[in-house]
C-alpha cells in the first residue's frame, strides 16, 4: 500500500483549511487522504488527533466567518470558567451571530442569534467570544442554580477577577425576559466576591442552606490583638471559627502541605477552632461537615 505523501511542515500535525492546503501546494486528492479527517467543511485535521472541545474550538476558528463568535458553554470553556464535567467534555460548539440570515447549520455546531448590540464581544487569544458576564448570563438557560452560582463566583474571584458585582448586576437586569432570567436573578443573590474555588462555593452554600450563619469569604484571620496572621477560606470572625477547604494541591504539593501545617498551627495558637474539609467530606459526608461546624459555633456562643 502506497504511503501518503508527507504534508508540508507548516501543516503537519495540526488542523488547516483547504485554502491553506492549496496555498502550500497540497492537492485536493491529498487532502482527501485517509490520514486526514474533515471535522468541518473546508477543514482538514490529522486522523486520531485530540478531539477535545478546545481542539475543536481552535479547528473551527480557522474557518469561522467574521460575523460569528463563540457563546454559551463554548465561551465558558474559552474563558476557563468552571462547568460540570459533562459540559467540560462536550465537543459540541456554540456559535452566535447578530445576523439571523447567516446563522450556521453545521454538524457539531449549535447556532444562536442575538440582537445587534445586546452582547459584548471580546478577543481571547485570537478568538471572538462573548464577554465573561454575557457568557454567565447565557449559561442560565442550561446550568443548574448551584453551577450558575459557581460561575458567578469565579467571575468575581479573589485572584484576577474578570468582572465586578456591579457588572454582574447590570447583566442580570439586561437579561430580564430571557430564558433562565429568574434563575439568573436567584444566582446573583448567592454570588460572593473573593472566592478561590468552586468547592469553596459548594461548601458555603451547604453551610448557609442548613441554617448556619454565613461565613466571610477569604478574609483576614487575626490574633488576639486584632493583627492579621493569615487569610482563611470561610471565616466566622465573631466566633473565631475557621472552615478550610483542602483541595488536591494541599495533599500532593509537599511544600504547600508543610506551609499549611505551620499556618494552621499559628492560627490555632491564637484561639481559633479550625475545621478542615475536603472533597470526600462534601461528596459523601455533608451531615458530618454540618455537625462539626455547628458544634464549633455553639461552643463559641452562637445560637440559632
From TrEMBL:
Region ranges (Disordered): 1-27
Report the domain of life of the source organism: Bacteria
Which SUPFAM superfamilies does this entry report, sorted A to Z?
A: Restriction endonuclease-like
**Family annotation (InterPro entries):** DUF559, Restrct_endonuc-II-like
Gene3D superfamilies, per database record? VSR Endonuclease
* Domain (DUF559) ranges: 233-297
Q: Which Pfam families would you find in this protein's record?
A: DUF559
In its UniProt entry, what is this protein called?
DUF559 domain-containing protein
* Species annotation: Cryobacterium cryoconiti
Q: What is the lineage of its organism?
A: Bacteria, Bacillati, Actinomycetota, Actinomycetes, Micrococcales
Amino acid at each position: 500500500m502506497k504511503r501518503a505523501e508527507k504534508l508540508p511542515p507548516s501543516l503537519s500535525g495540526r488542523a488547516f483549511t483547504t485554502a491553506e492546503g492549496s496555498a502550500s501546494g497540497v492537492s485536493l486528492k491529498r487532502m482527501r487522504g485517509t490520514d486526514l479527517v474533515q471535522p468541518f467543511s473546508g477543514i482538514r485535521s490529522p486522523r486520531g488527533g485530540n478531539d477535545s472541545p478546545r481542539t475543536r474550538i481552535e479547528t473551527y476558528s480557522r474557518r469561522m466567518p467574521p460575523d460569528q463568535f463563540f457563546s454559551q458553554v463554548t465561551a465558558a470553556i474559552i474563558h476557563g470558567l468552571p462547568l460540570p464535567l459533562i459540559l467540560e467534555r462536550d465537543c459540541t460548539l456554540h456559535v452566535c451571530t447578530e445576523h439571523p440570515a447567516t446563522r450556521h447549520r453545521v454538524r457539531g455546531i449549535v447556532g444562536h442569534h442575538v440582537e445587534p448590540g445586546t452582547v459584548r464581544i471580546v478577543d481571547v487569544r485570537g478568538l471572538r467570544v462573548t464577554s465573561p458576564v454575557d457568557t454567565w448570563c447565557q449559561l442560565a438557560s442550561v446550568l443548574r442554580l448551584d453551577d450558575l452560582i459557581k460561575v458567578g463566583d469565579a467571575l468575581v474571584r479573589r485572584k484576577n477577577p474578570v468582572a465586578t458585582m456591579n457588572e454582574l448586576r447590570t447583566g442580570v437586569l439586561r437579561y430580564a425576559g430571557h430564558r433562565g432570567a429568574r434563575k439568573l436573578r436567584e444566582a446573583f443573590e448567592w454570588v460572593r466576591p473573593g472566592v478561590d474555588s468552586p468547592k469553596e462555593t459548594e461548601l458555603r452554600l451547604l453551610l448557609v442552606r442548613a441554617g448556619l450563619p454565613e461565613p466571610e469569604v477569604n478574609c483576614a484571620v487575626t490574633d488576639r490583638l486584632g493583627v492579621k496572621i493569615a487569610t482563611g477560606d470561610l471565616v466566622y470572625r465573631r466566633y473565631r471559627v475557621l472552615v478550610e477547604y483542602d483541595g488536591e494541591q494541599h495533599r500532593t504539593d509537599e511544600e504547600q502541605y508543610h506551609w499549611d501545617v505551620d499556618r494552621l498551627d499559628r492560627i490555632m495558637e491564637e484561639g481559633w477552632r479550625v475545621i478542615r474539609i475536603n472533597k470526600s467530606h462534601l461528596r459523601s459526608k455533608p451531615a458530618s461537615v454540618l455537625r462539626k461546624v455547628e458544634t464549633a459555633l455553639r461552643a463559641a456562643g452562637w445560637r440559632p
